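Input structure tokens:
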């Protein structure tokens, strides 16, 4: 379970009956947009393009509770995606001969051999279907508050999109093939993925997400700072290995005079900044600028290239070639998961913050 106001649990297994999400604390009356859930799941779905896993899942979802007559009821929202195209044969041995980079070894030890190793069980990338559905619901909540969230791919292997992309371009990337805002960079990324796959290997990548319309004041300083709360959800995405806010690691070698986001007044008389190196957060609190972050994904662990592993029953070194249907670059399908993680964290903090706003209204109307 994660969150305090908008609380999320994920359940299911990759090759079990289903994967899904339970959201508690979603306010009543949110217009439930089934088309948004469908579109978000479609971007995450395997078999949707030659560049992703060829497991052919329609990813049909069902809302089991919490929505009535097209709106949320205020009760727990349970959403599931049924597993259909399951082939567990390639997983017969992963319990015994763990895949380097995957969670087979850690899961075997932690769950004392009782875990479900098929397709990675509940440590599979497929668990992000639940996160994506919860993210769609969070986006519906945020939509009511005027906040929007979008993500796209900015790097695959050595191919990087170097220019800063406007939030509007990122939103449009949702309808492009590789979910990258720049078509020429997307073509080069595609070649990089195909090259890795033809060589029996995989590549990593970087996903960028932006939230606009975020009011000043979301996040609690220090232990529940907005960056930490978002990062916790982002790093829950399988294969995510790093997250940076704004200019992130690029701020380390520069001087304060270059790094600081200086204040200014916009033509409409409102406060603005001359840059957004902080990525929209200062002191763990949103500062009103677009919230911008980047997430590094490692290359897919399961690859046909021979690797060294150990037969744990015989404690004998063996050569392992992973078969089955795998993504050559998980960062592609992680794009909607990053978007979802950011949306869930923001919805949680927005719902916490709203009660402060109500309190402020009472104070200014003389209640204090
Ligand atoms: C959407 C998505 C799809 C993934 N698909 C695969 C896959 O096909 N094969 C694989 O080995 N790993 C895949 N992964 C990555 C593994 O799930 C992940 O590396 C593994 O659970 C170990 O977790 P860790 O990398 O966070 O340590 C995928 C991850 C995501 C987010």
């Amino acid at each position: 379970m994660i969150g305090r106001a908008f609380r999320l649990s994920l359940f299911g297994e990759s090759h079990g009956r289903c994967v899904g999400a339970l959201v508690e604390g979603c306010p009543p009356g949110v217009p439930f947009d089934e088309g948004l859930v469908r579109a978000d799941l479609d971007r995450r779905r395997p078999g949707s393009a030659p560049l992703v896993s060829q497991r052919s899942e329609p990813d049909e979802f069902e809302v089991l509770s919490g929505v009535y007559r097209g709106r949320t009821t205020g009760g727990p929202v349970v959403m599931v995606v049924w597993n259909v195209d399951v082939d567990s044969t390639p997983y017969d041995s992963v319990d015994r001969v763990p895949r380097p980079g995957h969670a087979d070894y850690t899961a075997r030890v932690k769950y004392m051999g009782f875990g479900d190793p098929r397709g990675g069980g509940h440590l599979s990338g497929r668990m992000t279907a639940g996160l994506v559905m919860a993210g769609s619901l969070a986006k519906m909540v945020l939509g009511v508050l005027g906040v929007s969230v979008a993500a796209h791919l900015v790097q695959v292997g050595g191919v990087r999109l170097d220019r800063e992309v406007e939030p509007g371009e990122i939103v449009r990337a949702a309808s492009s093939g590789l979910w990258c805002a720049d078509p020429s960079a997307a073509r080069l990324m595609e070649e990089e993925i195909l090259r890795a796959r033809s060589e029996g290997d995989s590549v990593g990548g970087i996903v960028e997400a932006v939230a606009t319309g975020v009011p000043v004041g979301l996040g609690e300083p220090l232990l529940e700072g907005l960056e930490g709360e978002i990062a916790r959800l982002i790093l829950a995405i399988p294969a995510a290995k790093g997250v940076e806010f704004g200019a992130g690691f690029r701020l380390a070698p520069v001087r304060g005079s270059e790094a600081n986001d200086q204040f200014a007044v916009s033509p409409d008389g409102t406060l603005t900044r001359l840059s957004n190196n902080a990525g929209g957060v200062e002191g763990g609190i949103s500062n009103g600028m677009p919230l911008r972050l980047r997430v590094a994904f490692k290359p897919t662990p399961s690859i046909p290239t021979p690797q060294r592993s150990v037969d744990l029953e015989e404690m004998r070194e063996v050569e392992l070639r992973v078969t089955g249907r795998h993504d050559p670059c998980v960062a592609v399908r992680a794009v909607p998961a990053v978007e979802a993680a950011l949306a869930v964290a923001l919805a949680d903090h927005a719902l916490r913050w709203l009660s402060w706003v109500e309190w402020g209204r009472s104070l200014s109307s003389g209640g204090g």
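The chain has a mean pLDDT of 93. Helices lie at 34-44, 104-110, 128-144, 167-173, 183-198, 226-234, 256-259, 330-367.
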